[in-house]
Specification:
By secondary structure, the protein is of the alpha/beta class. It has a domain at about 90-260: Alpha-Beta Barrel (TIM Barrel), CATH 3.20.20.140. The chain has helices spanning about 1-5, 5-15, 35, 40-50, 65-80, 100-110, 125-135, 150-155, 175-185, 200-210, 225-235, 240-255; strands spanning about 20-25, 40, 55-60, 85-90, 115-120, 140, 160-165, 190-195, 215. It has a 9-stranded mixed beta sheet with strand order 2-1-3-4-5-6-7-8-9, with helices on both faces. Helix 6 runs parallel beside helix 7 (about 125-135) and helix 9 runs parallel beside helix 10. The chain is globular, with a radius of gyration of 17 Å.
Amino acid sequence: MVERLGVGRALQSGTRMIIDCHCHAGKGDGLTGPWDTAAPLEKYMRWAANAGINRTAIFAAFHSDYSVANQEVARIVASRPNRFYGLAFVHPARDRGRVRDLVQVAVEQYGFVGIKVHRYDARLTREICDVARAFCVPILYDPIGEVSIVELVAAEYPDVSFIIPHMGSFSDDWRAQHSLIDYLVRHPNIYTDTSGVRRFELLEQAVQRAGARKILFGSDGPWLHPGVELEKIRVLGLSPADEQLVLGGNFLRLISRRRHQPLALPAAQPAPAPLQAEYRDPWHYHHFAT
């Protein structure tokens, strides 16, 4: 399975590969905003090709049924298996009790390599972390600034890798991003991606304090230009070895431990929690501030 993903060959040969670890793809089924309407890849693919990006990890736009959304992403991955990796999007509340089944289908049938969760849907749960542990896949979790949970999951699940995108806050909450750097330094299983980070000095601090092994290149495509996001990595002035870790090596390392057959899983949890009723914008943290 590792060879099928190209991970083993790339790691052994030291092949230079640029991997965008953060890109939405496919149709949502809402009309709230771009995030749940559509994530078309046509422009993104042109931009990525011009920027020299070799592969992209994709996952669904926001959707009311991630089983359906993951199927669409699976079709996109299958159409170009040497170009895309897939991540299974799950809803912590609505998918409660079926996360195991969703991820099992995604990993075993679709060949997906990780799990995507967003605080806009609901907070990360033990059920999801247990499933990630069983399949030994990373979780890409956007906390929308609620980075205190990182301390909890890092300690409770030291054998699960967590990628916290946007350095913890797409909406540029510098307090959350500063805090995340501390978590990166202290916890070996906590990582971040560079997508949408606007305060460049924070990226510099993250690399200086936590090291290049804790940072992954991501764009948050198709809405952000991958070439623009990639240039932030270029101007960090990293050594060639460290730059290659950020641009692809770290992602390959995190997905290389994936199990095709999972370890034993806890029993399924009870029926789902009620759906989110009020409008909330996943790109603005203040909707969750108390």
